[in-house]
Amino acid sequence: MKKYSKKKTIGIAVSVVVASASMLTACSGSKENAGQTGTGNSTATPAAEAGKYPVNTTETLTSWEQINNNLLTFVPNLADSPFGKQLEKDTGIKVKYSHPADGQSKEQFNLLIASNNLPDVIEYDWNNAYPGGPEKAIADKVILPLNDLIDKQAPNLKKLLQQDKELDKMLKTDSGKYYVFPMIRPDNGLVFRGPMIRKDWLDELNLQVPTTIDEWYTVLKAFKEKKGATAPFTAQYSNEFNVQDAFIGAYHTANRYYVDDQGKVRYGPIDPQFKDALSLLRQWYAEGLIDKDFALNTDSKAYDSKMLSNASGATVGLLSGGMGKWMESGKKQDPKFQLVAAPYPTLKKGERAFIGQRDFKFNPIASKAVTTAAKDPELAVKWLDYAYSEKGSMLFNFGIEGESYTMKDGKPTFTDKITKDPKYNLQQMVTQYTKPNGPFLGDARKSFNTFKEQDDAVGIWEQTDAAKHVLPLFITPTVEESKEVAKINTAIASYKEEMFVKFVMGKEPLDKFDDYVKRIKEMGSDKVTKIYQDAYDRYNKR
Q1: Where are the domains of the chain?
Q2: Fewest beta carbons within 10 Å, which of 59, 232, 233, 285?
Q3: Which residues of the chain have pLDDT under 70?
């Protein structure tokens, strides 16, 4: 891909992105045809060849996708990894990958869409990151509808969709268009993030794992005063304080759109009870219990450093890329280092948590769309479909047999090369041979857990009512509705987050909460809520 001029700003306006995306096909009649037919201008691959690998081709595909930070420890590009090389060997298809810089994927995605230099496929969140969602992206002729291509060239994914009607429903727009090759989570892989805390510190201070807001206050205060923690609680900041509604959910609201007990969509940040959650976080911040620099934790290095330097004793983090990684490194520094899961906190003892992290089987965040710029959409689809074959699924989940895994009692098991490397932990080693996130069929037998604490964590974190209250990320507003959302939501999200940080840090008094709510409503939050409600209702009727 071409390099962008330094004069182009990273903070490109969403309105410009939408306008640019709409003009992507103006210069090319072939893109126009591709957008309408879903097949492009290439010669269709005979249906009899679908599902057969390796493919006999000299074409090179291009793919834009996030690279796992752990893989960057070894290679700068997915093509250079053992996984990338094996995928090319198995499929017979060479791929040139482009990776956005860590922490800059949103900005670089916007620039990419606004350019006239799209790759063949893009792995991203087409439901939420593209202004207007997949219907708009198809209408703008940025990505292809995939119905005919899946039907004729993707027998592996087609079979899965025929077998699983709920998954099939998730992958369509309301008008019935397939638009991505999905990341499909196994049933035991839906919960993978939650509160965790230093158990060795709790034992030393004779404290129990906290379950309520009051107990958390006691623990964090002890960490600060008796362990010298400068940031007793920390978390990663990725456009918002990423705590998966821990603490906030205790007040029966969420820091996002959610579904209430009556099945109605609501925007949590303007709920009256959201003010109570802000008041709590503000108090904790003022008392030094929350990382004073939480809004600066935008990269994993700063986050890791706080968890491993005894600056922090608690967070909301990932099962493998968080707890497992920190336990592996932490124990090398101090054999007593121990992290354990804590339940999503509630106000009352014994109450079930209102919301928390729980994914759906279809994860749109790491799914691939085929763009209208694809020279050979059929080839791109055949390459993508390999991940849903039996052999392809093994590669994506476990890597290369004999190197990264072996079969033991009929079960794939990671080798000592992966699990017992003297320098690198499991999460780092496994990224060389597999694709931890992306469009493929997840395998329930896969586990990156190396500690019992990880095995126990999922059972603790899944004790929430998140399944009732998390709004699916893959509902699809109509093109007209999407235009409204595109105009409204970016401004709301920006203002909400600006005020969230100011409220928590004490830079704005909570007396201004009503004014803040009024302004968000004036921006059009009620319109967006109704659009999401209508889209949610349509999804439930598919």
Answers
A1: 15-186+363-398, 193-357+469-541
A2: 59
A3: 1-48
